[in-house]
Specification:
Length: 429
């Protein structure tokens, strides 16, 4: 195998990779062996037709695609090892230049290279000082959330629906006199005032009684996720099966004892305040980091190749799809529910991908400029945190980490140190 590297504009490079004619012939033979049982040639039993006969009948190129698919991944990996000085940051754009039996197989791989970053001002960045405080109203709101979580649902039998009630309903929706898909439900618990149903649906149930059958008229919003319903008037036929209301627990010492480790309401509220302060301090610290890094990015110059941005965006969409899967929802189901397309999601995530790339590149430049290093002790501490998270023994986790993974972890640690460096150097006004 031979490799030629051509540097292109905008931090791109073209790798021209040549594989010997012998290797190509082996791959063609392999493709023939895999596919010969699928071929029907008069006069021959399946799997017994000679390769030359197949190529004569169907053309010499019949096995080229499979042969190329066999050669390219291995040859590309070897090329990356040979071109170890290239910092490639995108998936390759492959183009076959020459594929013909008896001649070398030649293909190109166009890739993005990590761009150089020219740092501007990154020490002494000025930011506005943030004061962290918790109001009495915020404490009360948090306590009331806990009261809501511990509320009891009381069944109503002798009055009509009121705002805030939980109404159990059967319903079916119609547009232009026809029932529409997804517009039917049975024994559905709807909280009046939650605005989880469209338009004034919930308000029109106020004053109605158990066993009432109600016609509810609404109009779907223009931006509704289902295009066939967007902006359309609809009629819902609704039957009220039951009414409940939430009974909140009394706000006293007994409540505090039930929901916390404290004996008195005063102690419980003090703990709520403390936790809110800690939360706000973490949020303020994260906001400070974000602001400092954003200003350093603004002060720096770099040229991000489109292929690098495309790769990062696709990776973020893939990560999002995996998170959905962990929650029991497929990517296809999410697309159906939201009415979005994969292309729209890619476009939506592109600015986030750009920001992520810029931040990482700038912080890596700070690491280099300030000679920031991750030590073996730093690595062990990180492994201890991960081991605790995954409930593993630290030594066994370290043994399972290969050289490539360790290199990436060490790089992440160094970047984290760079964040601390620039934030500590920032000036609050």
């Amino acid at each position: 195998m031979s490799l030629q590297v051509e540097k292109l504009e905008k931090n791109m490079a073209k790798l021209t990779i040549e594989v010997s004619a012998e290797e190509l012939d082996k791959a063609i033979e392999s493709a023939y062996q895999k596919n010969k049982r699928k071929l029907n040639v008069p006069g021959f039993r399946k799997g017994k037709v000679p390769r030359k006969m197949v190529e004569k009948m169907y053309g010499a190129a019949i096995f080229y695609e499979d042969a190329a698919n066999e050669i390219i991944p291995t040859a590309y990996e070897k090329a990356l090892e040979e071109a170890e000085d290239l910092d490639i940051v995108s998936q390759p754009d492959i183009d076959v230049v020459q594929i013909e039996e008896g001649k070398p197989f030649i293909f190109t791989a166009e890739v993005a290279l990590k761009p150089e970053v020219t740092l501007g001002e990154y020490k002494g960045i000025e930011i506005e000082k943030q004061e962290v405080s918790v109001t009495e109203e915020e404490v009360e709101a948090e306590v009331n959330k806990e009261r809501e979580n511990n509320a009891r649902n009381i069944t109503v039998e002798d009055r009509a629906v009121e705002d805030g009630d939980i109404v159990n309903i059967d319903f079916e929706g119609f547009t232009d006199g026809e029932a529409f898909e997804g517009g039917k439900g049975e024994s559905y618990d709807l909280t009046i005032g939650s605005h989880s149903f469209v338009d004034t649906f919930e308000e029109q149930l106020i004053g109605k009684n158990i066993e009432d059958e109600v016609e509810v008229n609404v109009t779907f919003p223009e931006e509704y996720h289902a295009p066939d319903l967007a902006g359309k008037p609809a009629l819902f036929k609704v039957k009220i099966n039951g009414i409940q209301f939430k009974e909140l627990p009394e706000l006293d010492d007994e409540f505090a004892q039930e929901v916390s480790e404290f004996d008195t309401l005063e102690e419980y509220k003090a703990d709520v305040r403390k936790k809110l302060e800690e939360k706000k301090e973490k949020e303020a610290a994260a906001a400070k980091e974000e602001e400092v890094v954003a200003k350093i990015v603004e002060n720096a110059t770099m040229e991000i190749p489109d292929a690098m941005l495309d790769t990062q965006t696709r990776q973020m969409v893939n990560d999002f799809a995996q998170r959905l899967q962990m929650q029991g929802l497929s990517f296809e189901q999410y697309m159906q529910f939201t009415g979005a397309t994969p292309e729209q999601l890619l476009e939506q995530m592109r600015p986030q991908a750009q920001e992520k790339i810029e931040s990482r590149l700038v912080l890596e430049a700070v690491v280099k400029a300030e000679n920031i290093e991750a030590t073996e002790e730093d690595f062990k501490e990180e492994m201890e945190k991960m081991a605790e998270m995954y409930q593993m023994e630290t030594d066994k986790l370290i043994e399972s980490v290969g050289d490539y993974e360790k290199k990436n972890i060490m790089a992440d640690i160094a970047v984290t140190k760079a964040v601390k460096f620039v934030v500590d150097a920032a000036v609050e006004k």
